[in-house]
Amino acid sequence: MNKYVKRYLIDALGGMAHGLFASLLVGTIIKTLGQLLLRLGDNAAFQFLVDAGNFATDAHVVGAAMAIAIGYAMNAPVLVLLSLAAVGSASNVLGGAGGPLAVLVIAIVATELGCLVSKKTKVDILVTPLVTILSGTLLAVLCAKYIGLAASSVGNLIMWATNLHPFVMGIIVSVVVGIVLTLPISSAAICAALGLTGLAGGAAVAGCCANMIGFAVMSFRENKWGGLVSQGLGTSMLQMPNIVKNVRIWIPVILTSAITGPISTCLFKLQMNGAPVSSGMGTCGFVGQIGMITGWFSPSDAALAQGATAITPGAMEWIGLVLVSFVLPAVLSWAFGLLFRKIGWIKEGDLTLE
Question: For FRET with 29, which of 35, 121, 129, 265 sits at 20 to 30 Å CA-CA?
Answer without folding.
Answer: 265
